[in-house]
Amino acid sequence: xxxxxxxxxxxxxxxxxxxxxxxxxxxxxxxxxxxxxxxxxxxxxxxxxxxxxxxxxxxxxxxxxxxxxxxxxxxxxxxxxxxxxxxxxxxxxxxxxxxxxxxxxxxxxxxxxxxxxxxxxxxxxxxxxxxxxxxxxxxxxxxxxxxxxxxxxxxxxxxxxxxxxxxxxxxxxxxxxxxxxxxxxxxxxxxxxxxxxxxxxxxxxxxxxxxxxxxxxxxxxxxxxxxxxxxxxxxxxxxxxxxxxxxxxxxxxxxxxxxxxxxxxxxxxxxxxxxxxxxxxxxxxxxxxxxxxxxxxxxxxxxxxxxxxxxxxxxxxxxxxxxxxxxxxxxxxxxxxxxxxxxxxxxxxxxxxxxxxxxxxxxxxxxxx
Amino acid sequence: xxxxxxxxxxxxxxxxxxxxxxxxxxxxxxxxxxxxxxxxxxxxxxxxxxxxxxxxxxxxxxxxxxxxxxxxxxxxxxxxxxxxxxxxxxxxxxxxxxxxxxxxxxxx
Lengths: 369, 108
Description:
The complex is a heterodimer of chains A (about 375) and B (about 110).
Chain A lengths: L3 E8 L9 H14 L11 E5 L7 H8 L6 E5 L5 H14 L5 E8 L20 H16 L3 H15 L13 H5 L19 E9 L3 H4 L4 E10 L14 H14 L8 E3 L5 H10 L8 H11 L9 H5 L3 H17 L12 E8 L4 E8 L1
Helix pairs in contact in A: 3-12, 4-9, 5-9, 5-10
Chain B lengths: L2 H7 L4 E4 L22 E4 L3 E10 L2 E8 L3 E8 L10 E10 L2 E8 L1
Parallel strand pairs in B: 5-7
Antiparallel strand pairs in B: 1-2, 3-4, 3-6, 4-5, 6-7
């Protein structure tokens, strides 16, 4: 099997502005080309677009407007973890020898149709994500004594870190008190506990070992891939204080990489809601179950950026199809030592956790410099 | 509209069961998800239990389980007793409201 690496990337700023999906895709692709002087359009074998947008044939459209005539071009959609799903597809194309160079571009407009899974009628009239977010939060509070302050601390930390991320939609820093007094959505969630859908795009260039040197001297290798889909419907979750798909995906990914949670220097985790960050660090076994809140408290107080250094989904915004790719870009920058103010010293191994539809599906990627 | 939805529209809560596997299939489907056998319909027991709950604008909503398998989220009407995990609820009404199913329950 060919070894596979991330060799370049491009980004747009995440914002609440509404922009055509084609423009978002093209702008992050242009940013990637600007960052990769040796890349020519003819080098690209495959173009994958990650999005929940309803526009058809976007990979062919992007290819045409970017002057690429790829062998393979198609869209990947899997709600909020479309981004990492498309990276797994790119990995498969390269590992199997079907492609040497794959361009993966994720984009979303702020009013994405991917925010609500209409099919899931078991949720009745409570289909908006704040309702599964409330149920997860209530359950975690009950089981582990998680408090509103613990949740606000996740949000405060991620907003604080996002201030140093030039592509984040938020650049405001909030005190824990301010966040604990933000608008109430439900008994268990405030506005400040929620990530926000926005417009944005992110692109990565993925290549086989034999061509990485053409594009970078610092490839970041994809060492582990774990994915698990337990169901499509939220009510099938067997626990509401733990994410089984994440637990399973992490096990698979660590096994493939021959690494363990103790080896992780930096992690991007899917904080769709504040409680999800606590659940993720626990379910990835970075800390034991129930210890997420004390772990995050220490990170916040010491300004340790080990978890969500770019500000997570809460601080950076959540353009669904771009999110998983933006997480991979941040981890790549950390492992290349180019994350500037966000840089974690001597980061060698990074983890990306991206999930969809109330954790019914999770992807865990392990990257190594 | 499926048989399930036709019945739901009339306020009836029916659930499909596989005659071979004896499994209740949820959400309702055309075939058994274990053996792909044809399903038969039965009236669901309307007494279930609370798995989790929360509240929005003074209205409780809960995730409830019926027949140890069928899970739905609906509005929970609370009169005297406060909701608790594991407590019994009765499915008072079910219907289709616009594009959504709508379930309303009461503490027993």
